[in-house]
Amino acid sequence: MEITHLPHDDRTNGWSAILPPRTPHPSLNTDVSADFVVVGAGYAGLTAARRLAENRPDAKIILVDGGEAGENASGRNSGFGIDLPHNVGGDHDELDDSRRFMDLARMAIDYNEALVRKHNIQCDWARRGKYHTAVTTRGAFELLQPFARELDSLGEPFRWVEGDDLEREIGSPWFTAAVYTPGCVLMNPAALCRGLADTLPDNVTFYENTPVTAVDYAGGITLETPVGSIRAPKMILAVNGLAGQFGFFKNHLLNFTAHASLSRQLTEQERAALGNVDSWGITPANAFVSITMRLTQDHRILIRQNIHYSPLRNCTDADRARIRRDHQRMFLKRFPMLPNVTMEHTWTGYVCLSRNGSPGFGQVAPNAWSAVCQNAVGVTKGTASGLLAADQATNVENPLISHMESLGVADALPPEPFLGLGVRARLLWENWTNRHEH
């Protein structure tokens, strides 16, 4: 089976641009074999390879990625390790679903935090919590108040913050109210991916800049690359929205591009104008309309907005230039006290969603397991799915496997052109009906 759509690094990722240079692991230039092969080095693939090595210390594991650690979708997200579902249902079954989600997310956070501490990974890892925000009183009433009630039903700690108190905490007068929850971790996602990649166990061999160009499932797994091949009896697939290229979850996954900008560092005077507030993270009550923001530990402000349906995951330099201008305007509206702060980096990230919000997880063939489709919660869901797929592949019992399976499986999608028309119409409807939250 030929792989026709290969990952492409446009070298625009702002998170990695502010980091020191890194030497990638060598690319594959020969024919090799292993006991397990993991395809994709985002959170799911990095965790799967590490967990396989932990479960089978005598096994040979190969991890392969078409690009470099920290430059793929995992290294381009907003840097939130989220421990709570954004929207919690109120009935008993939905609350149980939320508890299972929290168990998975908190396991993933604890697993990564232990590695950050053990290997001294410099990624600005901090349990700062996050503000779930509404711009208008309508948004606070329709979205935040139900969220707060359900958190109360779950027994989860939170603070309702509004008005002048909220402005004092984040430095911006833009938002009407927020639900602050303490369990979210903030980090530089590219630095975390780099650190996880460069501290893999000794029985993992990592080949970077090695795209898989063809796959054959006859008599095991054979992966062809530009100048070599990998053969293994078992595979874990962790390529998120590209899973269909490998023959799994075709017409089940929706690919979107999401765009972010990172400002230059604030000066001491600008930090004072902002109120000398500590680093924070903001997620919007409506993710498709409003914006995600961060104030980083090194005094930069991140804005993420502009989500587009993009089956081929493409974005041009002209698109990014336009998006940077949009982000600059949004920034000035939210931070009028910082009129001279400019956006230093603008980049495209990739989000894989399913129609029903379920992942592509589990055994997909006699010798293949999948950990794809994280539905925009990649740090925690990706880590959890990679770890649990590795446990499945090595027959290690883990009660959280049933938690992951309870999330369901990604639904099939209608064919094009009906799919594209429907998705774009839904995005337009979301933007129009929730325009008060822009």
Short description:
The chain has 438 residues and is of the alpha/beta class. The chain has eleven helices and 20 strands. It has helices at residues 14-17, 43-55, 92-119, 137-154, 163-170, 189-197, 268-273, 317-334, 378-393, 400-405, 418-433, and strands spanning 31-33, 36-39, 61-64, 80-81, 130-134, 159-162, 177-181, 185-186, 204-207, 214-216, 221-225, 228-232, 234-237, 254-263, 280-284, 292-295, 301-309, 343-353, 360-365, 368-372.
Description:
The protein has 438 residues and is of the alpha/beta class. Helices cover 32% and strands 23% of the residues. The chain is built from eleven helices and 20 strands. The strands form four sheets. It has an eight-stranded mixed beta sheet with strand order 6-7-5-15-16-17-14-18. Strands 9-3-2-13-20-19 form a six-stranded mixed beta sheet, covered by helices on one side. A four-stranded mixed beta sheet has the order 1-12-11-10, with no helix packed on it. Strand 16 and strand 17 form a beta hairpin. Helix 2 runs parallel beside helix 9 (378-393). The longest helix has 28 residues, at 92-119. The protein is globular, with a radius of gyration of 21 Å. The protein starts with 13 loop residues before the first helix and ends in a 5-residue tail after the last helix. The mean pLDDT is 94.
